[in-house]
User: Fold these one by one.
Assistant:
Number 1:
Amino acid sequence: MEITFEHVTHSYDANSPLANLGLNDVSLTIADKKFTAIVGQTGSGKSTLVRHINALLKPTSGTINVGGRVIDSETNNKNLKSLRKKVGMVFQFPESQLFEETVEKDIMFGPMNFGFDASDAKKAANEMIQLVGLDESYLDKSPFDLSGGQMRRVAIAGVLASRPETIILDEPTAGLDPVGRHEIMELFKELQNQGRTIILITHNMDDVANYADEMAVMNQGKLVAQGLPSVVFNNQQLIKDDLLTLPKSAQFAQALSQKGFKFEKLPITIDELGTEIKQQVNGDNSE
Ligand SMILES: Nc1ncnc2c1ncn2[C@@H]1O[C@H](COP(=O)(O)OP(=O)(O)OP(=O)(O)O)[C@@H](O)[C@H]1O
């Protein structure tokens, strides 16, 4: 589903549309079926931006077009179910929203709310628990008997169970250990491979470099850059202005530049860095 923001401004001050701007005249297209990362310093407007996609927030001015559904300041709260079924949102620390007695009931809650009948919701719970890397035996457990990482997976399964076309992830791996983070990121990539649109808010630039097709950089409510990660991470001005930090491979390449290595373009993943170093070392040897 393509998502387009046109001149979207959001003021958190109900009395003054020009004060406390969470978003300031943002125009942006998020491509269908791609993996798009939204980055920016804390308070730059990332969460405010994505909360407009399922109309949790309405723009003060401007419009958002979500696969043909237009959201503007006049959008009525009453008819949002079909939109919210299509756009699943995993909030920061989603496990804090678990509340049912069993994992199964928790995962079924979303689909039931969106009109699935009980047997379809049960089937979805069964599929999704496995998709997030837990076996069926977890379905009968209390969510509160699980580890933090397991609870996170259950909460994600609950969002996936309604089979949204677009999945918005607001720092979904915050607080997870590196192995847990890797597994969850691989799951999101797999969901994209199955045809979903993935939108990820993150502070982890390695995840952006490794998984995203496109990235958008926010600062003070404005969109300051958008494009391929390999291009955006090579925008020196963004780095200089402290609007973006580099993935580790690019940082390492920068350090190597001080030791005589030359990079026309900073490599942003370990694979790219490895290839560059190999070429340069082999090149030196053959001289
Ligand atoms: N409910 C709210 N009421 C008033 N101001 C808010 C509210 N939520 C966010 N803001 C303000 O809007 C701006 C953007 O906040 P937002 O949460 O969208 O940033 P963010 O980039 O997601 O930050 P973080 O990385 O810390 O999650 C900030 O200045 C913030 O203080």
Note: The CA atoms of residues 170 and 206 lie 16 Å apart.
Number 2:
Amino acid sequence: MFLGIDLGTSSLKALLMSADGTVIAEASHPYPVNAPHPGWAESDPQDWWNAGAIAVRKVVQSYAAQVQAIGLSGQMHGVVVCDGAGNPLRSAILWADGRSHYELEHYRALGTEALRPLANPLTVGMAGPSLLWLRQGEPEVYRMARWALQPKDWLRLRLTGQAATEPSDASGTLMADVAAGTWAIALLEALHLRTDWLPPIVASRAIAGTLTRSAAEHLGLPADLPVVAGAADTAAALLGSGLTTAGDCQLTVGTGAQITLVGDRPTLDPHGCTHLFHAALPNQWYTLAAMQNAGLALEWVRQLLGLSWADLYDQAFTVEPGCDGLVCLPYLTGERTPHLDPTPTGAWIGLGLHHTRAHLARATLEGVAFAIAQGFAALQATGANPDTLYLAGGGSLHPQWRQLLADVLQRPLHSVETQSASAKGAALLARLGIGQDRQIGEPWKEKQAIPGGSATQIAPAPQITIPNSPSPALETAHQRFAQLYPAVRSQL
Ligand SMILES: Nc1ncnc2c1ncn2[C@@H]1O[C@H](COP(=O)(O)OP(=O)(O)O)[C@@H](O)[C@H]1O
Ligand SMILES: O=C(CO)[C@@H](O)[C@H](O)COP(=O)(O)O
């Protein structure tokens, strides 16, 4: 059996998979995203560590002795600075964090040619700009840290005592050459950013260490289990859903929402609106539209309105499409695709006496769906036009919410069979890792054949949501949504 662990933004997911790819059990445990200052988004890695023990123990139960290997996936872009043993020197700075706006100027000053290897738009919340902020904001921490790691790489360091990363997470840091799969050392030196705290880049399927005795006790597993490098959550989710062919497209609705499109070469977006990241398999990349505020905005509104998840959805879907003139802009943490702008704020616009709590709830769902549709349009502007999308993520489970997403996107949505496609992808990488009997720390650029029984053979679940024909009220709300963005942005 194989254990996949996905260190998400809102919760850690654990998934136990048998050798034939069947999911035996799934569990999750939540933790908070904290905003100690306006525009900041941080989590305490100790919360991740504690959640790991709870979720893993729930899925493993009596199967502990049968687990053969562990794979990791996790939220992208953020950074944990820690000592050599993995003790964090401060809270993790997450992808939703907007503090590094001014640090992007250091990048821009290098000029377009120097930035080309990054293959990505310059965005706040990515490790590179966040570390530049740390250099001036917390110089002592900047100086003292041994490692600067992405969240799942930090977790692996704590589990194995070994520091490593792999191409999919490295490509989301604004510190890597995405096509070459190496750190962009020349660019980092030009930024005067430390490079000695970056870990080696190994293949996603490489065994990057083995479980230490104390970590094994923490998780309730045998010591010395192999732990593979794993992949970024969006890369692992593609693998977990069996989407490994160029043109495959998936929408994941979690804390953020992402639309991912598999490609077989590192093709740049001519408009510079979407991201390009390395996939979990060698010689594969994917284009990604990233919307900052999905489950994050729904959770904030749910708490504000004092509703359970069931009540939020029940009440929202008593209201007619278009919410009687109410539009919600969900930009609680700015927006990435298509605006690449950390400044817009959230808003409900068009409030009247006739509006109720149920209207506020539905308008938020519609606003998140419209934001996702704008991301899809940015992906289409690169020349792609997927006629169907796979649907994954813990924020995609309610049938009427799925229907609203299909209606707004005007595409059929195939929901995938596992609750956490990313954790499934991580378990599949664990299986690949030990099937190959690989050396610890093997460089990822070596030719790697995919053994039989690989992820490409996993059939996605057949459940499909077909879009309704366009509703005039929903279309009007969508158009108003698009027009209102300039009203909520500001000049920094
Ligand atoms: N019915 C629901 N139950 C739990 N979470 C939900 C539900 N509907 C939407 N969500 C949102 O989905 C997110 C959880 O999805 P998940 O894929 O686990 O996220 P992540 O990987 O970012 O931790 C949360 O942000 C939560 O607000
Ligand atoms: O920002 C991106 C991709 O660019 C996400 O992949 C983050 O990693 C967050 O994922 P969730 O926690 O929302 O699933």
Note: The pocket of adenosine-5'-diphosphate (ligand 1) is lined by residues 8-11, 254-255, 295-296, 298-299, 309, 393-395, 397-398 (CB under 6 Å).
